[in-house]
Automatic annotation (TrEMBL), chain A:
Function (record text): Catalyzes the oxidation of carbon monoxide to carbon dioxide.
Residue ranges constituting the Aldehyde oxidase/xanthine dehydrogenase a/b hammerhead domain according to the UniProt record: 32-141
Keywords: Copper, Metal-binding, Molybdenum, Oxidoreductase
EC number: 1.2.5.3
An annotated Gene Ontology molecular function: copper ion binding
Name under which the protein is recorded: Carbon monoxide dehydrogenase large chain
Catalytically driven reaction(s): CO + a quinone + H2O = a quinol + CO2
Cofactor names: Mo-molybdopterin cytosine dinucleotide; Cu(+)
UniProtKB/TrEMBL annotation, chain B:
EC number(s) per entry: 1.2.7.4
Organism: Sagittula marina
PROSITE patterns linked to this entry: FAD_PCMH (PS51387)
Record-given protein name: Carbon-monoxide dehydrogenase medium subunit
PANTHER family: XANTHINE DEHYDROGENASE SUBUNIT C-RELATED (PTHR42659:SF2)
InterPro entries: CO_DH_flav_C (IPR005107), CO_DH_flav_C_dom_sf (IPR036683), Diverse_Substr_Oxidored (IPR051312), FAD-bd_PCMH (IPR016166), FAD-bd_PCMH-like_sf (IPR036318), FAD-bd_PCMH_sub1 (IPR016167), FAD-bd_PCMH_sub2 (IPR016169), Mopterin_DH_FAD-bd (IPR002346)
Pfam families the record matches: CO_deh_flav_C (PF03450), FAD_binding_5 (PF00941)
GO molecular function annotation: anaerobic carbon-monoxide dehydrogenase activity; FAD binding
Residue span(s) of domain FAD-binding PCMH-type: 1-177
Entry keywords, A to Z: FAD, Flavoprotein, Oxidoreductase
Length: 806, 278
């Protein structure tokens, strides 16, 4: 059979494989309002659950009276901790080795905490029921400041842990202390600090914010009393992990549980953990025998399900007077809220914060992190970053600026002379990581040239003159950021969540007519997996991406995997996809050789076919091979053409990038304008450039929000002050900057296709760029450090404190 | 975020609406665009037994421009205020201010009447109406009466309107031809209420200055107007600042708001002066 497409190039384009800016196949349904989200699920007899939440941040619950609520027509049940206790489900384990109340067990630890679960025939009755439950509270002293929480006479928050001096991650030093995590060489670092030419010291705070996915968290639990099988639909970023955890805590056997993540409207780390709503919905479904739906509203989401950051990072950075960095010291106070519900790999209670030496060759370093309980919501999840990497990147990129001020140096130059050099990779960092590959100098030079860095500095110098002369009230900041991420968790030898190894998987079935279905252990929340992973298969096997269906999220059909967060899908499941493809390709080669009547070694792969070596006219296309695989008796070869691969990565991947922001700031109103935002990303091999660009735009917009206004704020009484989108800043198209994207390509040496992952880089890299721009604008007037978010009043306050208001 | 149950009424004329209000007393509330009221109901901060929807009452809609005034029906939406060319010619400051309210989706629903009636200090139209010396017509069982915008606001959510009265229209005297105008507003993002906002009109007849979200009611400063009319911008800004009483919120502390108010007020005055033609 001769095919019509003849040139190799045409045949390659026809596949829409790796490197093709293929349009996202998901967007057809999303742009037509045809997505299928959890709240779209309707089942016969479905009930609705809603929470009674605590108005207090710290209080004893002295009584709960359900009577009035149960009297409301449509209200079916009201669950409290007392009801869950006999099942042992009034508390649940967190992913961080702590435990968390499912429903208030005698006390509440944060405002918005779940106190009772009202189940009703519809949402409206559930909501009325919530209003009618009478709860008596006796308020207790509130601690919202983690430093005060560690004072000797601070109130005991976690009475359940009283007297317990050993936590999940070692000794607890105080009744509100969770863990201490240390990395690096303390004595050597102290030694460097005491003998260095220059030491710059600063407290860098990365404030509390929230991933705020557009779609909130929710689930539908449906226990089939006949089969004894529980189906749990939910907004899960890790459906298989949820299945195993549900089985472990409910003792329902795992084969009797099916977890399904349908379309997910953004996750950003908020949907990794286990929430009270899931447990209560499952219990309510078991008790009532009916499906039970629970979906948060926006206030619930911002108040109770996982927040991100809240890290107080005290840094010391030592250098020679020429600017060569000799050591880094960092101590972190991490505010975890009322329960430690971080979603980090088990052995990493502060995530991968020890990537905080950044992109620099820092020979000696020491890090210690103390986790602390406060009367705030639990969480500390990775909001579009690999576990605490954005905190680490922000920390080091601020410390570089602080050091540059101390040395009176240009910070672009300071970065350049400290970058890890291309030839140093694989690079062993002082805090324990092995960076796989990088070429920082090339990326940095390209970035500085693209924005005409010299001209910007000249313009800025002129602006400062004009400002001092009273000709303008606007200052100009140039914000630099060079980040190295650590993503793709991770090698099973050191990465697990609750004991579940962090490999991932892909299963591919080629149909007899040459099209295919592939299933992965990950789950897209908007990243475009169905588009990008099909492109890998297309290039690897030689069937068009358009002929490949990609499915994720149903634990009854998808192979086991640990889900999507920490930019792990491309590094881990993407690798599994390539490896499964290669298994298929190997079998296809045997079939092709048989059909062409030559030895296996005498055929070679050519885009979409196997051809006889030296005789390209004699070939079998993948379509022909697929048909033969199913329908022809081939001696020594099993029928069928499918494969599954479980991939345990040998190392993390280390994407990097150079971001530069040019900002105008009005010193009187505190308003800003982003004049330019340049983002160079190196994520190794680029599978779909359009998706990469989209990810950079989205992540940088989140970074913009975080740096310039987004925060979760509490008052001293622990009242949540930013529970609606009026006060929780989410930029609209009007505020969102215009981005200029760029790239270099430094493939990962250990990944089968050299890809590193990109989804989180823009959040990690952009926050320091925006924040540094604000700092840079005021550098000439003496500003060293000012905490985010840089909203209007805080920028105004910087100017005011520097005496710029006359 | 689900309101408590309520009865929904949708009368076709004003008399029926008034009679429903009379029957149910403070159990009943009118709803216009719903973009202030419904969020409060969803938060269960306001519980209402009877909701009286005004949208079928045709007599409450429309914009009428005459030689010396503009009359706007209470149910006219902010979107309609923006798109009316006749209004933009007669009173361009209304389009300028309305474009700074919320976002297009809210403005398709939100009405002028709803914006001025309820006394939310964050709303932009009350300050603007004070600046323009508008009069509100309210109608109850005893028939219509007029209240000056400058006398309408008592404190946050407390106004001179009786509970059983409906605000039917707003009458605005036309400022002199060639008047200068400006509505300046600083906000955190599109869709936000003002950190500080100020409306200014200047003409041969004098000047008028009013401010939004800088106290628990809109603030109209007669002294600021007098100073501005005399060409004393510094004095006018000082007078305006003396009249405000901003509160701390997520937009910032009081000192910041005062500072920003000074900038916003000055910008509004300077822009109005440059636009004034004689
Ligand atoms: C996200 C968002 C942002 C916003 N930003 C701004 C902003 O920047 N600036 C601004 O000015 N506004 C803003 N608003 C408010 C918006 O303009 C409202 O729609 C408006 O204030 C109220 O008008 P309404 O027609 O929606 O009134 P409703 O919500 O229907 O009613 C408001 C109140 O007025 C009463 N009422 C309504 N009509 C009458 C009447 N004819 N007679 C007597 N009483 C009446 C009601 O009983 C109720 O108490 C915002 C709203 C939202 C949701």
């Amino acid at each position: 059979m001769k095919d019509e497409v003849t040139s190799t190039e045409e045949r390659r384009e026809n596949l829409k494989g790796m490197g093709c800016a293929r349009k996202r196949v998901e967007d057809v349904r999303f742009t037509q309002g045809k997505g299928n989200y959890v709240d779209d699920i309707k089942m016969d007899g479905m009930l609705f659950g809603d929470f009674v939440r605590s108005p207090y941040a710290h209080a004893r619950v002295t009584s709960i009276n359900k009577e009035a609520a149960l009297a409301i027509p449509g209200v079916v049940a009201v669950l409290t901790a007392e009801d869950l206790a006999p099942l042992g489900l009034h508390w649940m384990p967190t992913l961080a080795g702590d435990k968390q109340m499912v429903l208030a067990d005698g006390k509440v630890l944060f405002q918005g905490q779940e106190v009772a679960f009202v189940v009703a025939n519809d949402r409206y009755a559930a909501s009325d029921g919530v209003e009618a439950v009478e709860v008596d509270y006796e308020d207790l002293p509130v601690v919202t400041d983690p430093f005060k929480a560690l004072e000797p006479d601070a109130p005991v928050l976690r009475e359940d842990l009283e007297g317990q001096t050993e936590g999940a991650h070692g000794p607890r030093k105080h009744h509100n202390h969770i863990f201490t995590w240390e990395q690096g060489d303390e004595a050597a670092t102290e030694q460097v600090m005491s003998t260095a030419d220059v030491v710059a010291e600063e407290m860098v705070y990365y404030h509390r914010t929230h991933p705020n996915p557009l779609e909130t968290c929710g689930c539908v639990a449906s226990m089939d009393k006949v089969t004894g099988k529980l189906t749990l639909y939910g907004t899960f970023q890790a459906p298989h992990a949820i299945r195993t955890i549900v089985s472990l805590i409910s003792s329902i056997p795992e084969h009797k549980i099916r977890v399904v993540s349908p379309d997910i409207g953004g996750g950003f780390g908020n949907k990794v953990g286990a929430y009270s709503g899931y447990v209560c919905s499952v219990v309510a479904s078991i008790v009532t025998g009916k499906p039970v739906k629970w979906v948060e509203d926006k206030m619930d989401n911002l108040m109770s399900t996982a927040f991100a950051r809240d890290y107080w990072m005290k840094g010391k950075i030592a250098a020679t007077k020429e600017g060569k960095i000799t050591g880094l010291h960092c101590h972190v106070i991490g505010d975890h809220g009322g329960f430690d519900a971080c979603a980090d790999p088990t052995k990493f209670p502060a995530g991968f914060f020890n990537i905080c030496t950044g992109s620099y060759d820092i020979p000696t370093a020491y890090l210690s992190v103390d986790g602390v309980y406060t009367n705030k919501a639990p969480g500390g999840v990775a909001y579009r970053c690999s576990f605490r990497v954005t905190e680490a990147a922000y920390f080091i990129e601020r410390m570089i600026e602080v050091l540059a001020i101390k040395l009176d140096m240009d910070s672009a130059e300071l970065r350049r002379i400290n970058f890890i050099k291309k030839e140093q990779f694989p690079y062993q960092s002082a805090l324990g990581w092995e960076y796989d590959s990088g070429d920082y100098h090339t990326a940095w030079d390209k970035a500085l040239e693209a924005v005409d860095y010299k001209a910007l500095r000249a313009e800025q110098a002129q602006r400062i003159e004009d400002f001092k002369a009273g000709k303008t009230r606007k200052l100009m900041g140039v914000g630099l950021s060079f980040f190295t991420e650590i993503v793709g968790a991770g090698p099973v030898k050191n990465c697990d969540i609750l004991g579940l190894g962090m490999f991932d998987s892909c299963e591919i079935r080629i149909h007899p007519t040459g099209s295919a279905i592939a299933r992965l252990g990950t789950i897209s929340q908007g990243q475009g997996h169905a588009t990008a992973f099909a492109q890998i298969i297309a290039s690897e096997i030689g069937i068009p991406a358009d002929d490949i269906t990609l499915e994720e999220g149903d634990t009854d059909t998808a192979p086991y995997g640990l889900g999507t967060y920490g930019s792990r899908s491309m590094p881990v499941a993407g690798a599994a996809t390539a490896m499964a493809s290669r298994k298929i390709k190997a079998k296809a080669q045997m079939i092709a050789a048989y059909l062409l009547e030559v030895h296996d070694d005498d055929v070679e792969f050519d885009v979409d076919r196997f051809a006889v070596k030296g005789n390209p006219e004699r070939f079998k296309t993948m379509k022909e091979i697929a048909f033969a695989a199913y329908n022809q008796a081939i001696p020594g070869v099993e029928p069928g053409l499918e494969a599954v691969s479980y991939y345990d990565p040998p190392n993390m991947t280390y994407p990097f990038g150079a971001y530069i922001c040019v900002m105008e700031l009005d010193v009187d109103t505190g308003e800003h304008e982003i004049r330019k935002f340049y983002a160079l990303d190196d994520c190794g091999t680029r599978v779909n450039p359009m998706i990469i660009e989209g990810q950079v735009h989205g992540g940088a917009t989140e970074g913009y929000a975080i740096a310039m206004g987004q925060e979760i704020a509490y008052d001293e009484m622990g009242n949540h002050k930013t529970a609606t989108l009026m006060d929780f800043f989410v930029p609209t198209a009007m505020e969102t900057p215009t981005y200029q994207t760029d790239f270099t390509v430094t493939p990962s040496p250990h990944h089968p296709i050299g890809a590193k992952g990109v989804g989180e880089s823009p959040n990690v890299g952009s926050v320091p760029a925006f924040s540094n721009a604000v700092h840079d604008a005021f550098r000439a007037f003496g500003l060293v450090q000012s905490h985010m978010p840089h909203d209007h009043w805080r920028v105004w306050r910087i100017a005011d404190e520097l005496g710029l208001h006359g | 975020m689900i309101p408590a149950a309520f009865e929904y009424h949708r009368p076709a004329d004003l008399a029926s609406a008034l009679s429903i209000l009379n029957t149910h007393g403070d159990e009943a509330r009118v709803v216009a665009g719903g973009h202030s009221l419904i969020p409060m109901m969803k938060l269960r901060m306001t519980e209402i037994g009877h909701l009286v929807d005004l949208q079928d009452i045709a007599s409450l809609r429309g914009i009428e421009v005459t030689s010396d005034s503009v009359v706007i029906g209470a149910m006219t939406t902010q979107h309609e205020l923006i798109t009316s060319d006749a209004l933009a010619t007669a009173l361009p400051i209304i389009r300028e201010a309305a474009l700074l309210i919320a976002d297009p989706q809210v403005r398709y629903m939100g009405t002028l009447g709803g914006n001025v009636a309820n006394g939310d200090p964050g709303n932009d139209m009350p300050g603007l109406m004070q600046c323009l010396d508008a009069r509100f017509t309210v109608e109850g069982a005893d028939g219509p009466r007029e209240i000056k915008a400058r006398a309408y606001y008592e404190s946050a959510y407390f106004t001179a309107r009786e509970e059983e009265e409906i605000l039917t229209k707003v009458t605005i005297p036309l400022p002199a031809a060639g008047h200068g105008f400006a509505y300046e507003k600083q906000k955190r993002k599109v869709g936000d209420y003002a950190t500080a906002a100020c409306g200014v009109i200047v003409s041969g007849d004098g000047a008028s200055v009013a401010m939004t979200n800088l106290a628990d009611t809109p603030i109209w400063s007669e002294q600021a107007g007098t100073a501005l009319a005399a060409g004393d911008v510094d004095g006018a800004v000082a007078a305006a600042l003396a009249a405000i009483d901003p509160q701390e919120d997520m937009r910032g502390p009081i000192a910041f708001k005062r500072h920003v108010a000074g900038v916003v007020i000055r910008r509004a005055m300077e822009r109005a002066l440059t636009r004034a033609k004689g």
